[in-house]
């Protein structure tokens, strides 16, 4: 049976990249594009995530899998997938929206595979940390260090998330205690790999904080971020310390975070501690975060299509064999992964 996949938000930056990667790797997949734009070909569907009445044509295309690559605040696409027994992958949600969507899904009978891939870079962190320590229950602490380049071709979603949430506190986990923190405070020195060097890294909220503590029961989880520009990183910290973000309008905050370049590397590093010591995994994507996120979504989709997984709710890292995930990423052009003992 031919696989029919729908990418909702398929004309956005990440959506288009998912389409390209997935079709290149799997020419036998039939891929439809859902967006608010007018239909041009038989593979285009006019879908507005805020208007469930526009979803009806999906059933006529015998869609097997929906990949959500656009913000769906009300979870209409999630409900549609559950109600109609369609496999679903979501890579879009910040932590509060993920928690809300998870609660909605858990209150329904699940007759398909529902995958939340909203961690950093499409939910790769959870799978990769198992490469270093397969026995995840013995991990005491995970720290993720993100390098974000203002020159990266990142699109609107990352900028809009920061603009909407920069003035709101979020939760870090210290020995299973919830610690309320804010973005760009509590700086820490970290020496990044791939020639980046020593940087000040600041608090940053990603869904992995919630997933690794609440789902995988890792007692201490922190995420820190630095920008490619040391002056920008320092300035954002100063703005937060002086509470300037609190008085700026959403439009003004979007203007601060809304720049997008022509392309640059994306880097994140995972430092894991257990009773035996510390290990580090460093990943560099020379093609940037949109490419890496889209690749993650594509790998998730391939797992669902090619494997007989039980119908239930998953986080993205739970559907992968860690070694296979590591190999798939390592073999992709422009990706370098290094592992070291600390």
From TrEMBL:
<protein>
    <recommendedName>
        <fullName>Saccharopine dehydrogenase</fullName>
    </recommendedName>
</protein>
<dbReference type="InterPro" id="IPR036291">
    <property type="entry name" value="NAD(P)-bd_dom_sf"/>
</dbReference>
């Amino acid at each position: 049976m031919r696989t029919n996949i729908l990418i909702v938000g398929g004309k956005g930056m990440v959506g288009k990249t998912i389409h390209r990667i997935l079709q290149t790797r799997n020419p036998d997949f039939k891929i439809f594009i859902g967006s608010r734009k007018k239909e041009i070909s038989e593979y285009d569907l006019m879908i507005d995530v805020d208007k469930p009445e526009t979803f009806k044509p999906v059933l006529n295309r015998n869609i097997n899998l929906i990949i959500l690559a656009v913000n769906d605040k009300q979870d209409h696409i999630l409900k549609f997938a559950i109600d109609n027994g369609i496999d679903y992958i979501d890579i879009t949600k910040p932590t509060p929206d993920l928690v809300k969507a998870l609660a909605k899904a858990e209150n329904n009978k699940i007759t398909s595979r529902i995958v939340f891939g909203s961690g950093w870079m499409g939910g790769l962190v959870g799978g990769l940390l198992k490469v270093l320590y397969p026995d995840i229950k013995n991990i005491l602490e995970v720290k993720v260090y993100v390098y974000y380049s203002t020159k990266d071709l990142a699109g609107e979603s990352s900028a809009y998330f920061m603009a909407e949430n920069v003035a709101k506190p979020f939760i870090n986990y210290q020995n299973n205690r919830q610690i309320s923190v804010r973005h760009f405070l509590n700086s820490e020195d970290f020496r990044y790999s791939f020639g980046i060097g020593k940087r000040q890294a600041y608090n940053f909220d990603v869904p992995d904080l919630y997933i690794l503590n609440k789902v995988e029961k890792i007692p201490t989880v922190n995420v820190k971020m630095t920008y490619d520009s040391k002056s920008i990183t320092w300035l954002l910290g100063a703005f937060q310390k002086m509470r300037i973000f609190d008085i700026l309008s959403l439009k003004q905050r979007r203007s601060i975070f809304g720049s997008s370049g022509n392309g640059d590397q994306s880097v994140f590093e995972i430092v894991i501690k257990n009773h035996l010591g510390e290990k580090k995994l460093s990943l560099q994507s020379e093609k940037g975060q949109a490419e890496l996120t889209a690749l993650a979504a594509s790998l998730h989709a391939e797992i669902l299509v090619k494997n007989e997984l039980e119908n239930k709710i998953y986080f993205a890292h739970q559907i992968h064999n860690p070694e296979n995930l590591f190999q798939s990423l390592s073999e992709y052009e422009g990706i370098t992964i290094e592992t070291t003992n600390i």
